[in-house]
Design goal:
Blueprint lengths: L2 E9 L4 E8 L9 H17 L5 E7 L2 E7 L4 E8 L4 H18 L18 H7 L7
Antiparallel strand pairs: 1-2, 1-5, 3-4, 4-5
Protein name: YKT6 protein
Membrane topology: Lipid-anchor
InterPro entries: Longin-like_dom_sf, Longin_dom
């Protein structure tokens, strides 16, 4: 059971913005890591783009299972995990992250934010904490 990425995005109109992301691509070879990370980012944005406000869903993409939660305020979270990772735990993680993010980052920054401008540092900690069977 493994988590590969945890992302916070803003479902703007017409574009989805990546606000912050954390990745664990250590199980891939050094030469694959950049392209895997790019794939995870692209897939997360695409899933949020295709999801309605106020919805949760799990989508299979290749050998990954992507869990998405798009809140009514346009803040969205995506966890990309392997198929064995429990869905319920993924949605619990997304709820915690989105609540924490919305408390720490002013709503006014969401529509224009980017990973370089958003001052939120907790994603790596969440990803590490929820990485089952791989103590950090």
């Amino acid at each position: 059971m493994r988590l590969y990425s945890l992302s916070v995005l803003y479902k703007g109109d017409p574009k989805v913005l990546l606000l912050k992301a954390a990745f664990d691509v250590s199980c891939f070879s050094f030469f694959q890591r950049a392209s895997v990370q790019e794939f995870l980012t692209f897939t997360s944005q695409l899933i949020v783009e295709r999801s309605q406000l106020g919805t949760r869903a799990s989508v299979k993409e290749q050998e990954y299972l992507c869990h998405v939660h798009v809140r009514g305020d346009s803040l969205a979270g995506v966890v990309v995990a392997d198929a064995e990772y429990p869905q319920r735990v993924c949605f619990t993680l997304l709820d915690k992250v989105l609540d924490d993010f919305s408390r720490q980052v002013p709503r006014s920054e969401w529509p224009s934010g980017s990973p370089g401008t958003i001052g939120y540092t907790a994603l790596d900690g969440y990803l590490s904490k929820y990485q089952v069977g791989h103590p950090r």
